[in-house]
Amino acid sequence: MWRSSLPILLLAVAAGVAVNLAPPQGGLVFNMGIGAILSRQRESKGGLPSIRDSLTHPVHVYEGDDALITCVVRDAGDAAVMWKREDRERHSRRVLTAGETRVTADPRFHVLHDAAASRKGKIKSGGDVWVLVIKQSKPMDSGIYVCEVNSNPILRSFHKLSVLSREVLPPDNKSDPLEYGYHMSKEAFAKNHNYTDCCVEANVSTNCYGFCSIQSILEGTGQDPEVCEPDFPAIVKCMADGRNHVPCCIQEGVPDICQDVCRGEYTVITDNIKTHFSCSTYTEQTLACIVEGVEILPSAPERLRVVVLSDTSLQVSWAPPLENGDTVTEVVVNLTALRNFDDDGTDATISNATSTLQPAISQTQLLNTTITVKVPAKQNTTIITGLQPFTMYEATATALNIYGSSLPSYALRAVTYIPFTNTPKLSKGQDSPAPKIPKLPDVRTCCKNKGITHPTCLDKLCEPALSRIAQVTDLMICAPWVTESFSCLTNGQDHSPCCRARGLPALCQQLCTGNVTQIDFSYFKCVKHMTTFNSCLMQGYGVLPSEPVGLRVSNVHDEFAVIHWDIPKLNGDTVTSYILHYRIVTTSDEDYQIIMSIQGSPFLLQGLKHNVKYEVYLEAVNAHGVGQPSSRIIFHTPSAVVQEETDMEERWIDGPSSLYNMTACCVQVRLSDACLPICSYDANMSDIRRLVTTCEPELAKLVRCASGGRNHQKCCQRRGAPSPCLSLCAGVIVDSALAIATACLPYAGNIVQCFAEGTGLLPGPVEELHVTAVSNSSVLLVWEPPQDGSNVTDYVVHYRKMDNTSMHEVVLKLDNQLTVTNTSINITNLETGSVYDFFVVSRNDEGTSLPAASIMINVTETKLEGKGIAAVTSPPHSLSVASHSATWVIISWQPPEFSHPTEHITYKLYHKPASEEVFNVVETSLTTHMLENLMPNSQYIVYVVAKNKKGLSFASETLIAWTDPAYPAFVEPPTVHPINLVIEGSSMTILCIAMGTPMPTISLYISGRLVRQETTRHMVTVVHNVTRDMNQISCYADNGYGTPMQASRRISISHVPHIIGSGMTMAAKGDSVTLQCQVESYPDPKMIFWRDLNGRVPVIHGGKYEINLQRDKDELSNYIMTLKIIGLMEEDEGDYFCHAENAFGSATQPVSVKIRALESTMNVTQCCNEQNVSAGCMDACSFFLDIDAVIDKPDCINDFDKLMKCAADGSDHRSCCASWDVPKRCLDWCRGEPLLNNKFCVLSYTKQIVSCFHEGRDRLPGPPQNVKVDILSAHSALVSWDPPVKNPNTVEMYRVFWRPVGARVTLKNDTKDTSITVSNLKDSTWYEFVVKAGNHLGTSTLTEPVRFIVGDKYITSAASANQDSAHVGVIVGVVLALVIVAAIVVGVVWFLRSRRLLGAKSSGGVAFENPSYLREVNMDHIQVPSGGHLSEMSNGAGSNGSATTMISGSSGQPLQTLSPTQQGWKQEILHVPAQSTHNSATEVAPSLYEELKLGHDGAGFRRLKP
């Protein structure tokens, strides 16, 4: 409760609301506001002195610091201002200062006041502030200081000073005179109820000290209550100050659920819905009772002690209460017997054996057995006799006076058992001798005298100090002398009471008697108890210390507590250490945790858990062993979660009548599975918040099952629920979910607790209500009792005569009631022909049920058959239009007020246009429904009936609903935020606003792509990671009426400049060269050319350099930078850098120029002569192909294939041609191959192709030279070649292709070297090899194929057939091969050429002659494999014709196994990677875009799939 009261009180004070605290006695009235608690009649318009602005906050200083206490006196005039101090012992005030004069002899006191030097008449002028200064404060200065104005009437303000010690522990409260008697006015006392010292001891956070004073709470603490909520349990306990304020709270009408603060307790808000209750209405009464109670009620008795006098008696003593102890009339001591204590958890045989030593104590006797003893105030001790032996009792003490009582003191536990000792009794009047430890009996000599000679038995069983370390083997060895040894150990005494009290098993207790005749294996379990056995021996000898006394606890924190005790009375001076035992007190016994070797009091017990009750006791240890245990003390650690069940809660939780199951009800009414987690009286608020939207349509089912058919309204009124929420307590919803949540959510805990309590106490609803007979004046009603086992004492039958006004009214109490005890009644004296309404409720002493159904019947004699007429649920009610549009209307209604909680209810909704006669019917299980496909601007008539297994209810009221007129969709241009600064990579928010009826569907398009679509009027979309191409934003709206509308906006996205350079440009010395960069940037960039990147040396416009910066006309964010170098020289060769920057960053891109090495190029004239170019076309065969010289000569069209072959110069330029959009049919020219029909290509693409020849002549390598094959074995061969003649220095990789002759599958591999070893070849199979060179810009053409057969070393090559260096064996092999396979070769060639002529496509491998390697990737982007060269390769049968390749390093060891397709092309732009990054890359077929761009079907351009 307090978790609601305190924060709300603070909010009320902060808002300037005065809170009236009126205690039950009329003599004490307070008016608490923001300023102070003052008597308003002291202020008047005459300018009398006032101290209402005086600062009365508690002052806290540390010892040695100066203390300053401030008093503000307005209009003091001639009145003197004095500082006084309360003297608690003498009940008076001691004057310290008068005006600015020090009166006390203590020089540490003086007054600070800015008195003016001038006077005006007799009235002194000066400041209003009077500060009492205490230099070098001491703890003894703590107390109450009074600022007194000597006026008429006398004005006083009270100020609390606390001087805190700098040590770890806070100063003793005894030195702090908190109470100052009745001499202080009651208003001031209430205002100054300050419990800060208690908060300090309770470890309240320093930031929350503002809540430790009533005055600071009322004036505003300045702290957030939620931050301090973990400290509220301790704060509220300190506020109650040990007094029991519950009687006052009851008298003031505070509900029981809100009385926890009156007991000094605090219920923290948890996730459980029961803790979410509100008591803010009763804050004034609660605080008023506390303020009065701390003045007149006594605090709890102090220093409670329990001493065991005998097996059947205890002595309980205490010290008087610190507060109002002189008003105590009596002290009530409660002694409760506990069910068990310190059980060691052994088996049942132990308890049976225990009963033989002591009569068994019935568990029934011990259960809830409490002895109450009233002791007069003059006594501080009492002896309670007649107790059960060997029973643990818990004692508390409560102080009473004429006004009330304190809270119970802390609890102590003690066991009714007195150990035997041989301490001699003292005669009367004899003084206690000085502590002296008796000597131990000579057990060893006793054993020897009885014939024990074995050394182990003498050492382990005949030495009391060593018996505790005995092992099982020792008992086995000493079994023959067990009688003698234990007889000597016990020294002729019976130690079994001690052993029993310390929890030894019954069998082991026989050892404590000393009468043991023999030992068998069953005694071996006693070895682990030898330490306890030894302690009982020592206790019997009288050499052990007695129990520690005065056990108490202080400074209880949620993680630690300080334990205090006094030394034992017996042998206390021999104690060397203490053993502390502590455990959590639960329903099942927890094992004690033990802390050894504690040196003395106090002891800091750490590692505790919050919100847990602990039990602690001590044992003293000396040289001989462990002494008796002390009394038990129980304390409770504070917590952020306090949730204790009240007695009433135990009734409905544990009581046998609590049979109602809310979850089962929800299942029966078919609550959706998603909402089942909140169908519980212990539902979590987190689940409720999460499911509130989902489960809102089923709220009625939840409330109906929660009420259980019971009427909880009385409980809700008692628990403080407001009137608008009382219908919920009857399981009825009369308003919308939003209205209910707004009014009743703060009281959810109040209501749910009533539900949970009432379902166990209140009777359930009746079942099967029927009318079995109707006459002209009577009706016979029959029903069945509740089926959930409820306790029903009688039934109340309600009935009334109906009329047009009451037809649709549903009330819980009708005009007439009859009470019966059986389940039927014949109601007579009814009016013939009239309609009557009937229902029945069950009743007991706790309250009544709710009506489960009602019967409305015409009292006219009717013959009924079977069970008669069944009662049905009441009609739905409160129909309304929840929402509407032009084509739909949402109808909502509330469920029936009378219905059985577990019955499944559905609804029939009847609707029709006003102009039609027939109703349309829709069935639903929800209380809302959308009527769709309606006509705009039309009127509809609607009503609803409820349906259950008994039939249909009466109809609800009729509702007339209108649809809206239709308007076409209209959309506004999109709004983008931020408006002027959208940055690439950031986020932007787009707002689309559309109007129209019905509600339109808005679609958001960004750069032509649909991003989002929603039916709404305002659509807000946040786009993250904006890119520069998201510059076109469109909002599109359509509602099915009229023409859809679209509004667009183009935005500029700010981004870092992006530069695309022209790369490397080759030119001849003396030529003019133009270097170009394309820049994309927004906002406008600053652009410049640099010659040196590091030194940032700019290129200056003028002389041989011409710089041009131009904006693109179509794209305003695109720019073109050009640098023209006139007369290229050696010093101009090298890199240039395009640089652009704007406010968001910069970018730099290199472009290069290189002087062409003319001597390394091919002479086109020589090639033209070799290709037999006609004389008329030789004009084009200059040093480089001059196509302009022959392009206008029709006679040269037939020579264009030859010219292109010479101009290609052995390189494959298809990649460049594709970038110039050269079509498929012309791509063969780009690698020097002839075309079938070249006229189209001559006219349209000759210049583009020739420009690619010029561009690649110095960049692309020519084909490798002198390819040859050396047979290494029957399954391997070495393929080698020479570097190209053209541009050999540009070669980055060689690609080798091979396959069996005629095969459709081609294998390949790459290498940096000019040779490669191929293995796993098939014996006696013809193979053919081709090679091409390449770099990251492209490749050469393929070499002529070289053919060979493995095993016979026959090698043929079209390229080497006429070479002088050919071997004779090779020539012979060629001849023989031609003879053997001539027919096969001719057939294959004819077949392949015929397929080409017919236009057939090859689906597998391709022929070299075609050549097949058109389908191979141009070596635009080469992936260099890791390691050295690729020198060995094995081909085998892989999937889809792939082969496995072995790659070796220079050492010849295998490095890697790869597929021939795995070393594919890596698409990088400007560099060749040093190592392979895609070892498992595979080539895939070209995309549709590549097919369209790069040539005919799969024209060799494949892309790498990662």
Largest sheet: 9 strands, antiparallel
> Taking all residues together, what is the mean pLDDT?
75
Anisotropy-based shape: extended
Strand content: 25-35%
Sheet/helix structural class:
alpha+beta
Unreliable stretches covering 5 or more consecutive residues: 1-46, 117-125, 168-190, 341-368, 420-430, 640-658, 1357-1375, 1392-1506
Per DSSP, the total helix count is: 31
Which radius of gyration do the C-alpha atoms yield? 53 Å
Termini gap: 65 Å
Tally of strands = 80
**Secondary structure: helix percent:** 10-25%
Tags for this model:
1506 residues; alpha+beta; nine-stranded antiparallel β-sheet; seven-stranded antiparallel β-sheet; 31 helices; 18% helix; 31% strand; disordered N terminus
Describe this structure in words.
With 1506 residues, the protein is of the alpha+beta class. The chain is built from 31 helices and 80 strands. The strands form 20 sheets. Strands 17, 18, 20, 22, 25, 26, 28, 29 and 30 form a nine-stranded antiparallel sheet that branches. Strands 66, 69, 70, 72, 73, 74 and 75 form a seven-stranded antiparallel sheet that branches. Strand 52 and strand 53 form a beta hairpin. Helix 11 runs antiparallel to helix 14 (482-490), helix 18 (647-654) packs across helix 25 and helix 19 (662-668) crosses helix 21. The radius of gyration is 53 Å and the shape is extended. Mean pLDDT is 75; it is low at 1-46, 117-125, 168-190, 341-368, 420-430, 640-658, 1357-1375 and 1392-1506.
Show the helix and strand layout.
Layout: H1 2-14, E1 19-21, E2 30-32, E3 59-62, E4 67-72, E5 81-87, E6 92-98, E7 101-102, E8 109-112, E9 115-120, E10 123-126, E11 129-134, E12 143-149, E13 155-164, H2 186-191, H3 196-201, H4 214-219, H5 225-228, H6 232-240, E14 243-244, H7 246-251, H8 283-296, E15 302-310, E16 313-319, E17 330-337, H9 348-357, H10 363-366, E18 369-376, E19 381-384, E20 392-400, E21 405-406, E22 411-415, H11 443-449, H12 455-460, H13 472-477, H14 482-490, H15 496-501, H16 506-513, H17 530-541, E23 549-554, E24 561-566, E25 577-584, E26 593-598, E27 603-605, E28 613-622, E29 625-629, E30 632-636, H18 647-654, H19 662-668, H20 685-695, H21 699-707, H22 713-718, H23 726-729, H24 737-744, H25 748-761, E31 767-774, E32 779-784, E33 794-801, E34 816-820, E35 824-827, E36 835-844, E37 847-848, E38 855-858, E39 869-870, E40 877-884, E41 889-894, E42 906-913, E43 920-924, E44 928-931, E45 939-948, E46 951-952, E47 959-962, E48 967-971, E49 975-977, E50 982-983, E51 988-997, E52 1001-1006, E53 1009-1015, E54 1018-1023, E55 1032-1038, ...
